[in-house]
Amino acid sequence: MRTKLVAGNWKMNKTAAEALQLTDELLNGLRPFPAGVEVAIMPPFPYLMSVAEKIKTTPVKLGAQNCSEHPWGAYTGEVSAPMLKSAGVTYVIIGHSERRQYFGEEGALLAQKTDAALASQLLPVFCCGEPLVVREDNRHFDLVKMQLEEGLFHLPPEAITKVVIAYEPVWAIGTGKTATPAQAQEMHAFIRRQLADKYGNQVAEQVRILYGGSVNAANANSLFACADVDGGLVGGASLKAAEFLQIVRAAGN
Ligand code: 13P
Predict the structure, then answer these.
(1) How far is the CA of 94 from the CAs of 107, 115, 150, 167, in angstroms?
(2) In the chain, helix, strand, coil percent, each to 5?
(3) Is the pTM of this model over 0.85?
(4) What pLDDT does residue 176 have?
(5) How many C-beta neighbours within 10 Å does residue 92 have?
(6) Is 63 helix (H, G, I), strand (E, B) or coil?
């Protein structure tokens, strides 16, 4: 049985004061903390340690949005996995489509970042998903398969079970368009089949696959009801406490 995970990716939003206020609102709304669903919040780097302090006595987990492939050194502006670990981080997003699209991150680099995260005992949230033109061309399964092969499938079985995969169709990110539950389930089942082909059924059944792309309070129930949807990676709707809390409740149903 996979525990559902609802993770809020705050992206590049909020001042320090706002980040702490949102954290407080979430913690107040979550108490008593729900059983059977794991909650993670992923603030921008500068707020990680102060958010970590607020959540340290709660089951809420801290996530970061990216990490360097290098552990230390002269890489101005970068933040490494050992740093994140020492700041209280549990999860780290690897290969978000915005990193792929705007920062040229892909393939081998994402495999290195995945390795860097795991080497620091961070749990990667590895993102995959196709742009609209690729879906219109009916090449979305091929592309997602390639993204998994390039970024993840070098891992041994004991490492892949630590990875969370997030299917985030690019056409659904920040657009208000959501994959239908049928589209999400179809791709999630495909991803699990790729895992099964590579690692066997037992391993594939353990890996959590989140859906991301305009998840909100209105659509969360139907998405999370899909057999292979193990929660959500939530962008815009994670910036409003009330809405994010409703999404968390939908995962607990
Ligand atoms: P939205 O929920 O704003 O579409 O963003 C999804 C996302 O990119 C989460 O990582």
Answers:
(1) 11, 10, 13, 12
(2) 45, 15, 35
(3) yes
(4) 83
(5) 27
(6) strand
> Which pLDDT does position 122 carry in this prediction?
98
Unique residue bearing structure tokens 């792929």:
100
Phi then psi for residue 231, to 5 deg, are 130, -165
Ligand 1 atom having least distance to the Cα of 236: 3
- Residues 233 and 184: their CA atoms lie apart, in Å, by 13
* Pocket lining: 212 vs ligand 1, CB cutoff 6 Å: yes
Q: Is the CB–ligand 1 distance for residue 174 below 6 Å?
A: yes
Which residue bears the tokens 């959501």? Answer: 178
Q: Which helix (H) or strand (E) holds 132?
A: helix 132-136
Which domains can be identified in the chain, with CATH numbers?
4-252 (3.20.20.70)
In this structure, the number of other CB atoms found within 10 A of the CB of residue 36 comes to 10
> Residue 232's beta-bridge partner residues?
6, 211
